[in-house]
Specification:
Blueprint (H helix, E strand, L loop, with lengths): L2 H9 L8 H14 L8 E2 L1 H8 L3 H13 L3 E4 L3 E4 L4 H25 L2 H19 L3 H19 L2 H8 L2 H12 L2 H19 L3 H25 L4
Antiparallel strand pairs: 1-3, 2-3
Length: 231
């Protein structure tokens, strides 16, 4: 078994209650983002199917999704080739995210009603409860809901569209970081600090906490990527 197929197999989690095509897709995505399948590597659909004893249909679905997310590309007369992501890419993505999240949070803070702040607080309290119960997948969803809430309340539709274009990377970066218990607790604390800054309409604190929050996440991701010798 070659290293590329071995990496995907190692990241293939069949314990989740989800369709096989989704599990295959997630295994490919994790392997690519962490650099376990290097940029320029060709993915042979037939070879994967035969080696893993899996129908080509879910593999074809996974590769189609990855093409849509621009993690792989179809090269004429060659096939599917990995584009991948580098440490430099990670820095660039987080720099963009810091600017966009700061803008969205400040705008949301200025437009939110008292009821909106109550709803945001309830969302944070739910996140704490889910974390105490060690319901990691639900905590991940709670983090997504938190971010979506702020972008929704910012009323900046174009900004939300730009962030959506980065989801292929951001969602998995978040998943990797938040599945770490230490990072998860710290991120929840940072969300509370951000909430308090919003309540007091403190633009300086909101900017500072947003940047610190994303810097901490980036450092965690870089450690993961560097452990896999990604440059």
């Amino acid at each position: 078994m070659n290293e590329t197929i071995a990496a995907v197999k190692n990241n293939l989690d069949l314990s989740q209650n989800q369709p096989l095509k989704i599990s295959i897709y997630e295994a490919f995505r994790k392997s690519i983002i962490l650099g376990q399948i290097p940029a320029g590597e060709r993915i042979n659909e037939k070879e994967f199917s035969e080696t893993l004893n899996i129908s080509r249909t879910p593999i074809r679905y996974a590769l189609h999704q990855l093409v849509e997310e621009q993690l792989v590309e179809h090269v004429p007369r060659v096939g599917i080739v990995v584009k991948g992501i580098s440490i430099k890419d990670a820095h660039e993505i987080y720099d963009i995210r810091k600017s966009l999240d700061t803008l969205a949070t400040i705008k949301a803070m200025q437009l939110m009603t008292p009821n909106d702040f109550d709803d945001l607080r309830a969302l944070l309290e739910e996140g704490d409860r889910l974390n105490q119960e060690d319901r990691v997948d639900d905590v991940l969803q709670n983090f997504s809901d938190f971010n979506s809430f702020i972008y929704e309340k910012s009323q900046m539709k174009r900004l939300k569209t730009i962030v959506t274009d980065l989801q292929a990377y951001l969602v998995y970066f978040r998943d990797i970081a938040i599945r770490s218990s230490e990072r998860r607790y710290r991120a929840l604390e940072e969300h509370w600090l951000l909430y308090r800054g919003m309540v007091t309409n403190d633009i300086t604190q909101v900017t500072l906490i947003t940047h610190e929050h994303l810097n901490h996440s980036l450092q965690f991701i870089l450690q993961e990527m560097e452990s896999h010798q990604i440059e």
